[in-house]
Write a sequence for this structure.
């Protein structure tokens, strides 16, 4: 497992609330490598929050920024990389991930996603309308694409440590 992670970046994909950042941090700890969060890197590069990028420049501009940041992160030192839920939906980014890294889809059920995203306001896609309906629509649209990930790990209401162990087992 360790050798896999040291030679190739492990990229976590999945919907908002699937636990990509939480599990990613733990996974990096277990593998003894760095953890990077693509959203954090976008915020650093832009000097604006994700919500502000969406509000001031729109989603397309956020996606452009995301694509550039992903390209930089994927060509750097192998690490564990958590992505924003939309990153793997971009054909160019997805091709780069599949070429350079091991992709891991954290597949979660709707109730888990709804409860993990509830009360958080930093996600522009969930800030208008009914979050459950929005997450359901995103599941329908994105799950067939996330399914292209090299590894799929199911995650329900279980702890981040438990899911981390499942990822390690799947990578072994
Ligand atoms: C998005 C997910 C967010 C963030 C942005 C858009 C998406 O990241 O990149 O709000 O399109 O699913 P998380 O999945 O880390 O919440």
């Amino acid at each position: 497992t360790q050798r896999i992670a040291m030679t190739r970046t492990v990229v976590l994909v999945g919907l908002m609330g699937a636990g990509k950042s939480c599990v990613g941090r733990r996974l990096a700890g277990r593998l003894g490598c760095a953890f990077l969060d693509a959203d954090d890197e976008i915020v650093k590069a832009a000097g604006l929050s994700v919500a502000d990028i969406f509000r001031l420049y729109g989603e397309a501009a956020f996606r452009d920024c995301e694509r550039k940041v992903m390209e930089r992160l994927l060509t750097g030192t192998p690490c564990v990389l958590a992505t924003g839920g939309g990153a793997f939906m971009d054909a160019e980014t997805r091709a780069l991930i599949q070429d350079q890294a091991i992709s891991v889809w954290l597949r979660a059920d709707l109730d888990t996603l709804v409860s993990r995203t509830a009360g958080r306001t930093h996600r522009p896609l969930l800030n208008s309308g009914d979050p459950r309906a929005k997450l359901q629509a995103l599941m329908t649209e994105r799950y067939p694409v996330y399914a292209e990930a090299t590894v799929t790990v199911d995650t329900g209401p279980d702890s981040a440590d438990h899911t981390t162990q499942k990822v390690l087992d799947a990578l072994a």
